[in-house]
């Protein structure tokens, strides 16, 4: 049955009576003097009696008395009452999405129905509501927003349900009315300024040509917003659109205003706490639907606003389901309270980690490797907290070791965290520093980390000696492996050569005969060459002897001052006189 017909019993009709003109405050002694929300009104008795069954009954019982004290509790505001008074006095009134529900509620309270007077205000307002408000997305939201101050009256008349049903029907037809789905991106610590870009406004709403500026459900109070979203979820609307609307709601009402207790009033904190608890109840449970960065932001707000345990636990559970999609920044949840001893809420992080590992069923270990690296990075980040207790650090380091087990990762991450912790906590005794370093597996460090540790003065001497010993063992092992690898490579090479020789043996036999023929020809040629060489050598020897003889003779003639010529053989020697002794 139509909501309008359901409520006509409460808005009955009666014979129409012409409305006299409105009069001034001092116009007649028969005027009724009323004060609505501090604003004075002077109304004609006959006019009120003609249009309002309730006012008519009161005035009939008190024809001469002042009835202002009897009508001082009319549940409305001055603007709405003025519209009704103008209607009673025959003036035209302008109905709008912002006032129609208030007018309907007041008209029903005053008994301005067709049973009392034809063409009364209830009929006029109902027609406008039915034909102008309900078909429009924007006008429905505006009408609901205006009804928040008289929510119970509007709900009793089924006006809230009528608007809600209209909104839900439109969302089922076009889910983008809730807003574009959240972009699930992985942000780094430097991308905080881009966080708000993951929320998109309702930019594609085009249901009605006249609705050039689309309204958001986020303008509604949580008392109206929660039941509407709850009904939308049960209509199987895609949950990514629902999640988008929920986080737009948080941005509008919670995230900008999560200040310290000294900056926010008790009423505001209670309102924000109520909102965040309601939104958590509405959040889908599906993994990956909502980015960890947004869940972390919501969890931090819930902790700051002291939300109930169910709300905080629900958010931790959702983060734990998709911890492999988180960043270090998502886990840096500030500790709360005046007596906080550490900068970050490490207990919260441990609960999130516990949920992840207790529910991880994927056969692929990639998620475990990612989370192990995440924990190492988180440990290195919180290690710089000067207030971080030794016990807490050791507990987190133990969790890091447990997370890395079976992932075939080195211990460089935990070494980095230990180095930072020792640097920021110089007051630790030698025994405490050795206790910290006991979490380190020296045999699982990379060569770079070993080299750094060997010269790290923050480490105890005993630890440095152990690291040097570990490096020496690694060096020996590396050399042995290389020698073994080299021998293996040589053996493999010999085997390959042998296989090549076997493959080519058949082809060698084929050319062997041809090679023998060629060899015999070569031998014959060599013999001929040898004989020719010997003949040449004989001729050269005789010519050489003759040449040598000629040369020797020429030299002797020169020494003895002989006339030398190729054709002369005489030698004229000057004889010297020899004197006797």
Automatic annotation (TrEMBL):
InterPro entries: BTB/POZ_dom, NPH3/RPT2-like, NPH3_dom, SKP1/BTB/POZ_sf. Keywords: Ubl conjugation pathway. Residues 30-97 form the BTB domain. Pathway: Protein modification; protein ubiquitination. It comes from the Eukaryota. Residues 1-24 are annotated as: Disordered. Residues 211-474 form the NPH3 domain. One of its GO terms (biological process) is protein ubiquitination. It holds the Pfam family NPH3. Belongs to the NPH3 family. This is BTB/POZ domain-containing protein At5g17580-like. It comes from Nicotiana sylvestris.
